[in-house]
Automatic annotation (TrEMBL):
Its main location: membrane. It comes from the Bacteria. It is a multi-pass membrane protein. It is found in: Endomembrane system. Residues 32-68 form the DUF1232 domain. It holds the Pfam family DUF1232. This is DUF1232 domain-containing protein. GO terms for cellular component: endomembrane system. Keywords: Membrane, Transmembrane, Transmembrane helix. The keyword Membrane applies. InterPro entries: DUF1232. The lineage of its organism: Bacteria, Pseudomonadati, Pseudomonadota, Alphaproteobacteria, Hyphomicrobiales. It comes from Aliirhizobium smilacinae.
């Protein structure tokens, strides 16, 4: 069972990098590029939309949302291209970093904080 989990995690990591590559390739349809780019940026971002310290919900994105997003993005990328990107991902030695994903997550959190403060301004 542990061996299966490790293999799944390794395949997931490879697919995230493959999607990161797909989002930058001109042969990939625009819809697939957008979904692949969003999923890869979120998965590679050092910041989560739902922080892990929040009970249950904190790991929900890591366990459910990210794998579902990966599955959707993989279905949108043409199979022959996805095979090529997977091969390229296996050959890469380093993990890409998504500064854009980091910036988007921070912007969402900032917007939420501004909204909460704006909503509470009349109460204080």
């Amino acid at each position: 069972m542990l061996k299966k989990a490790k293999a799944w995690a390794k395949a997931l990591k490879r697919d995230i990098i493959a999607l990161w590559l797909a989002a930058r390739d001109s042969r990939v349809p625009l819809t697939a590029k957008l979904v692949a780019g969003a999923v890869a940026a979120y998965a590679l971002s050092p910041v989560d939309l739902i922080p892990d310290f929040i009970p249950v919900l904190g790991y929900l994105d890591d366990l459910i949302l990210v794998p579902l997003g990966i599955l959707l993005a993989i279905r949108l990328v043409p199979p022959e291209l996805m095979s090529e990107f997977r091969l390229m991902a296996e050959q890469r030695s380093g993990r890409p970093v998504s500064r854009m994903g980091f910036a988007v997550i921070l912007a969402i959190w900032l917007a939420c904080i501004i909204f909460v403060l704006w909503s509470l301004k009349d109460r204080f």
